[in-house]
């Protein structure tokens, strides 16, 4: 099996424990309460899950099973192709949507390959990280030729997952004491995208990770995972990494950095990672709900006051994303841009 490419090796303190010891698991929320009238209870449960975990699972979410089965089958067919076929839709600095097999998280290479597809095609975003530069650019999707129905299947999935994401955004708004539609305006011209993740079996699961520890930068992530498992969440209560056990057809929801900023730290964006598996390949499909490029992200006025002053300075989403994208293509000497760079220093 040869030697591991050192680019994949995590430093010792970030390597995974390969035994699962703790049963403390993220909450499961049943969205059928939306139709049974018990919405207040549902909103309270969601608020509690966001505060205590930053992560929860949803069941009875309304995404039709056959739509999920179709995207699962299509993504398997795509990733099953030769590397040369997949690289026909390879992403680069000029075309940031597409196939990528050497992503780095915190400067260590992830044991995975991905295909990114924006939900708005083209996606409109700042051309450069320079705050003075007002120029915009468009990211066009790169559609694989195979499987032939790929585009249709992906679009069908995107429509369904978007509905679920906006429903959750509404429930989260309510749980913060805001109107249900308070946050929707930020998503006119959204920069959201769907990532198809393929984690091949990894002969060195004690050294490498499927995805290194990170927080999601957007507002919300709505993730479908297959039955293999491997996602781990850093539990807020004690800082332990706990596994997120797959429940068939459930979605995993997590609060991203933007909701942390909007809520002025009430709901924190929590670190997570994916442990590699030596035997089985794994597939997952996150939908990253991202606002429009022109949105300036800052704590919401309704959620701050004299006793609870804003903990973050405003930042522009388009510039934030442009900075991230630029650094995505090579190993960096410095840390990626993060929301803590905008934190107001405490006196
Ligand atoms: C991500 C992520 C988790 C998973 O892509 O940001 O955290 O289970 N993925 O694939
Ligand atoms: Ni993530």
Automatic annotation (TrEMBL):
PROSITE patterns: FE2OG_OXY (PS51471). It comes from the Eukaryota. SUPFAM superfamilies: Clavaminate synthase-like (SSF51197). Pfam families: 2OG-FeII_Oxy (PF03171), DIOX_N (PF14226). Keywords: Iron, Metal-binding, Oxidoreductase. Residues 190-291 form the Fe2OG dioxygenase domain. GO terms for molecular function: metal ion binding; oxidoreductase activity. Belongs to the iron/ascorbate-dependent oxidoreductase family. This is Fe2OG dioxygenase domain-containing protein.
């Amino acid at each position: 099996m040869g030697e591991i490419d050192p680019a994949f090796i995590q430093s010792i303190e970030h390597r995974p424990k390969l035994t699962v010891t703790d049963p403390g698991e993220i909450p499961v929320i049943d969205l059928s309460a939306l139709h049974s009238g018990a919405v207040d209870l549902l909103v309270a449960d969601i608020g509690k899950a966001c505060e205590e975990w930053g992560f929860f699972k949803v069941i009875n979410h309304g995404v039709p099973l056959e739509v999920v089965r179709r995207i699962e089958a299509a993504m398997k067919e795509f990733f099953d192709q030769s590397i040369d076929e997949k690289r026909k839709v390879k992403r680069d600095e000029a075309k940031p949507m597409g196939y990528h097999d050497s992503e780095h998280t915190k400067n260590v290479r992830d044991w995975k390959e991905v295909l990114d597809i924006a939900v708005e095609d083209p996606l409109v975003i700042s051309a450069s990280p320079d705050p003075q530069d007002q120029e915009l650019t468009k990211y066009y999707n790169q559609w694989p030729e195979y499987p032939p129905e790929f585009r249709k299947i992906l679009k069908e999935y995107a429509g369904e997952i978007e509905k679920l994401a906006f429903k959750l955004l509404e429930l989260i708004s309510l749980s913060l004491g805001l109107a249900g539609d308070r946050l929707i305006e930020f998503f006119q011209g959204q920069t959201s995208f769907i990532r198809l993740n393929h984690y091949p079996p990894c002969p060195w699961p004690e050294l490498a990770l499927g995805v290194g520890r990170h927080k999601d930068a957007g507002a919300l992530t709505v993730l479908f995972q297959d039955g293999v498992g491997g996602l781990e969440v850093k539990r807020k209560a004690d800082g332990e990494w706990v596994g997120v056990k797959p429940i068939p057809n459930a979605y995993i929801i997590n609060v991203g950095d933007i909701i942390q900023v909007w809520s002025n730290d009430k709901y924190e964006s929590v670190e997570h990672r994916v442990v590699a598996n030596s035997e089985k390949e794994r597939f997952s499909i996150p939908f990253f709900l991202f606002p429009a490029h022109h949105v300036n992200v800052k704590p919401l006025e309704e959620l701050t006051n004299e006793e609870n002053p804003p903990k973050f300075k405003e930042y522009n989403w388009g510039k934030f994303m442009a900075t991230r994208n630029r650094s995505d293509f090579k190993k960096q000497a410095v840390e990626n841009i993060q929301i803590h760079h905008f934190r107001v220093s405490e006196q």
